[in-house]
Amino acid sequence: MEMNGTHCIAELYDCPPELLNDESFIKDALRGAVDQGRATLLHEVSHHFHPQGVTALGLIAESHIAIHTWPELRYAAADVFTCGERANAENACRHLVRALRAGRHAIRTLARGGELGAPLGTGPVAAALVDHASVGVSG
Fold this sequence. Notes:
Structural class: alpha+beta
CATH superfamily: S-adenosylmethionine decarboxylase
Number of helices: 4
Largest sheet: 7 strands, antiparallel
Order of helices and strands: EHHEEEEHEHE
Radius of gyration: 15 Å
Number of strands: 7
Strand content: 35-45%
Oligomer: single chain
Number of domains: 1
Strand order of the largest sheet: 2-3-4-5-1-6-7
Shape: globular
Helix content: 10-25%
CATH class: Alpha Beta
């Protein structure tokens, strides 16, 4: 069975806290991820938490992009799920690494879909799990 989509998870460490606490900046980063991922933005919503932190969600024609920030930890979590031939979840995640100025990051990519009932950890979905980790400074 063919894969239905790509799910990219980004762990972003050592980000400037003032950026992570700026709702407008996070929304701009989300829109940039949409552009870099060649996706189609349908709707966005965001919320600034008090005393700190932002969550921004983008509903895209291809699925979704989500960003959650913890300025006090200098950490952000993002996930991008895309379906179809055109959109590229990994490009969207790489944009977020650059935009949020992560000093360190890890990106995990998982092909979604596949055979129902296949044992966990086997088959094309497990084989498509790719880890990209960076312990250095992002460039």
